[in-house]
Fold this sequence. Notes:
The model has no long low-confidence stretch (mean pLDDT 98). This protein has 336 residues and is α/β, with parallel strands linked by helices. Helices cover 39% and strands 18% of the residues. The chain folds into two domains: 4-209, inorganic pyrophosphatase (n-terminal core) (Alpha-Beta Complex), CATH 3.90.1640; 214-334, Roll (Diaminopimelate Epimerase, Chain A, domain 1), CATH 3.10.310.30. The chain has a six-stranded parallel sheet with strand order 3-2-1-4-5-6, with helices on both faces. A six-stranded mixed sheet has the order 7-8-9-10-12-11. Helix 2 packs antiparallel against helix 6, helix 5 runs antiparallel to helix 6 and helix 6 packs across helix 8. It starts with a helix and ends with a helix.
Amino acid sequence: xxxxxxxxxxxxxxxxxxxxxxxxxxxxxxxxxxxxxxxxxxxxxxxxxxxxxxxxxxxxxxxxxxxxxxxxxxxxxxxxxxxxxxxxxxxxxxxxxxxxxxxxxxxxxxxxxxxxxxxxxxxxxxxxxxxxxxxxxxxxxxxxxxxxxxxxxxxxxxxxxxxxxxxxxxxxxxxxxxxxxxxxxxxxxxxxxxxxxxxxxxxxxxxxxxxxxxxxxxxxxxxxxxxxxxxxxxxxxxxxxxxxxxxxxxxxxxxxxxxxxxxxxxxxxxxxxxxxxxxxxxxxxxxxxxxxxxxxxxxxxxxxxxxxxxxxxxxxxxxxxxxxxxxxxxxxxxxx
Length: 336
Ligand code: 5GP
Ligand code: MN
């Protein structure tokens, strides 16, 4: 819950029409997209002028979401976005814990803005740039938090089917369809209430998970063939080079969820996927664990990243070979 004083202050702010910008993190996922669009559909009913600005272009598997076509893109179109940010009375930041998660350039731009920031987020170790903060690392998803936030404001009657569709989407994607340990009884009660708002939950699942291309399935096949095991360290990892991505006509979002396969093997409690991105000159890494192995700490300490205890991301500017051999060495040292 957001603390009582802050919720009253935010409620007061929202009583008169405001110019509001809502920001998700770079390389959006279902939770960032669901929470920003869910909040957008809530706030527009209160007659605020609301703009969602995504740091960069987002994946096709999110483009069915209501009003996703109205989302502005900062990196692709900074000139259109800057006036919105300059004019804003309030900037909501959703599903991230530090401004640099919007990208280095956008992050520094936001840093020098003198605005009322409101954070809603469930990642570990939040920075303190926001005037009002609702941070809860025990939450399944930022979407679940937006639901609680709307209830705390006493405005749950404004959760219509559009809001509910967006919030349900982020809960489903961040909980791995309700299977990760972050899923609580309350998460299910929230999902149940959202379904009772009249959303088409089966269609949401289909839109998110059953619209793959043949190329993507072939790429998944390649990823699974590339999987390496370090059984004595209960660790597995997958690599995908730029050449392998190119050979399968890689589109943004195609590798979403691949990392989870590494944990499906019996006896494995830690996994990683290394995905080369030649355009950005980095290897993007995702980490997942079961039980108590803290991948947020691992990603922070060794790979310039962060996230949650069981799901985190990071990056490397070394080559694929160097990155993987450093990873293997670290695993051998710390998991002895
Ligand atoms: P994914 O592996 O799916 O990209 O991300 C897993 C989780 O870690 C997500 O909650 C995501 O927001 C977070 N995350 C991913 N990459 C980074 C990163 O480079 N830095 C930080 N701090 N968090 C990340
Ligand atoms: Mn999230």
